[in-house]
Amino acid sequence: MKNNNVIHIEGLTKMFGDFAAVNAITFEVEKGEIFGFLGANGAGKTTAMKMLIGISKPTSGDAKVAGFDVFTNAEDIKKNIGYMSQKFALYDDLTVKENITFFGGIYGLSRQRIKEKSAVLIEELRLEDVANKLVGSLPLGWKQKLSFSVSLLHDPKIVFLDEPTGGVDPITRRQFWEMIYKAANQGTTVFVTTHYMDEAEYCDRVSIMVNGKIEALDTPKKLKEQFKVDNMNDVFLKLARG
After folding, report:
1. How many CB atoms lie within 10 A of CB 71?
2. Which of 5, 28, 18, 48 is nearest to 209 (CA)?
3. Cα 135 versus chain centre, distance
4. For the ABC transporter domain, which residue ranges apply (predicted)?
């Protein structure tokens, strides 16, 4: 794996019987890059992400994430990445502080480090007034921003975000992307799936999966030039129509 690449994928494949859910995909992601991983429902992007985060074993191919092999070092991968699932990942029946403490413990942080991180996180998100309230009582946008921050508690090399802004209002979406840019500027690689094509414009590079294969991969600017269109939604539509 090249020094600047934190994800290296070559011919990665996942079969379910005779069906190739992910069909020999190949790409690399650089440190600090915001990498958009796009595709319609059923295109294979969620299956691919599950292999990369170490919870699903590939059928064949080669893949290294944060320097670790997905076939043999899945547990090491989990320790070096953050992950925010499509469905809200925190516990509604715990308070904001309790969630931070719980996940800090899972990530192996010391009590002192959890205390320090908790104070900073609550201040940055301006959650002082609700720090002792149940997470379930918070608006969805606050929940999503808190979930993202918790996924970064242990300073992972890479954070995987699965549809992180689904269902939130435009203002919260913009605030969320400001948080993504901040993490990337601090050296964290961001691997994000989204079905909002305008958000693809915010990524450094974008890959688009169709029927288990990566059919396009480049910067948003170059993809729009390649397909002779003005926006990423039209790029996606052209690929989807074949």
Report:
1. 15
2. 48
3. 22
4. 7-236
Alpha carbon dihedral 57, 60, 64, 68, in 10-degree steps, equals: 50
User: Could you give the domains of the chain?
Assistant: 32-60+80-241 (3.40.50.300)
- From first to last of its 242 residues, the chain has per-residue pLDDT tens of 456 889 999 999 999 999 999 999 999 999 999 999 998 878 888 899 999 999 899 999 999 999 999 999 998 998 899 999 877 678 999 999 999 999 999 888 999 999 999 999 999 989 999 999 999 999 888 888 899 999 999 999 999 998 888 888 888 889 899 999 999 999 999 999 887 888 899 999 999 999 999 999 999 999 999 999 998 889 988 887 86
Contact partners, residue 134, CB within 8 Å, separation at least 6: 92, 93, 94, 95
The token pair at 178 is 């400001």
Q: What is the DSSP letter of 95?
A: B
